[in-house]
């Protein structure tokens, strides 16, 4: 499949900061990949100019931040020849692809939510998308509708459902930076400690966890300092 024009639109929400939303590639080195990377959305395009080195023909653009917030985000990708308009939540980046080629050759299947077979030309080990996608259109084709009606043009792999369940998560917000905290009773004579949590903040500094270790071993602290996470024992 060789195209001079492509339009991809979708909405997604996720709590995972990394994951492939869609991917397609060709035998001569063409590929297009849309993926979450650390809560930002990255679009990678290579129009497969075989006369150029990978780094000279590869184009990557990143938009957005904190997109792994379990809220719906809209995406629109419009490509005509080498001109690309990449829009995330009404913020648009206009750019031109590198190299001389102006068409995209996709010989393998297009995949949504992950890359099915790692190791094909141009692919890398990437995480599959974990979350919800709706209003998914590729060049005017309603992909989700085809999948729901089990059309032969598309097939589903793994745990895919046609619903979007809300995760059972109860967050807590600390309003004051100096007087708000959560206190849990300690457990005497404990041999080990296991703590896991997710957090989100705009502050560069702040204490996240403090506890006294048993056996007069001193305190354990987890804190932000200058935007970097620090563990002190």
Average pLDDT works out at 84
**N-to-C SSE series?**
EEEEEHEEEEEEEEHEEE
Low-confidence stretches: 119-123
- What CATH first level of the largest domain would be assigned? Mainly Beta
- According to DSSP, the number of beta strands is 16
Determine the strand fraction and express it as a percent band.
Answer: 35-45%
Q: Helical content, roughly?
A: under 10%
Tell me the overall shape. elongated
Radius of gyration: 22 Å
Oligomeric state as shown: single chain
Domain Laminin G: 1-164
Protein name: CNTP5 protein
Pfam families: Laminin_G_2 (PF02210)
Organism: Bucco capensis
Give a verbal description of the structure.
With 233 residues, the chain is mainly beta. A hairpin with a 2-residue loop joins strand 8 and strand 9 (91-96). Strands 9-8-7-2-12-13 form a 6-stranded antiparallel sheet. It has 2 domains: 2-148, Jelly Rolls; 172-233, no CATH class. It is elongated. 4% of the residues lie in helices and 40% in strands. It contains 2 helices and 16 strands. It has helices at 54-57, 143-148, and strands at 2-3, 5-14, 19-25, 31-37, 40-46, 58-63, 73-80, 83-88, 91-96, 104-105, 111-112, 131-138, 141-142, 206-213, 218-225, 228-232.
List the helices and strands and how they pair.
Elements: E1 2-3, E2 5-14, E3 19-25, E4 31-37, E5 40-46, H1 54-57, E6 58-63, E7 73-80, E8 83-88, E9 91-96, E10 104-105, E11 111-112, E12 131-138, E13 141-142, H2 143-148, E14 206-213, E15 218-225, E16 228-232
Antiparallel strand pairs: 1-10, 2-7, 2-12, 3-4, 3-11, 4-5, 5-6, 7-8, 8-9, 12-13, 14-15, 15-16
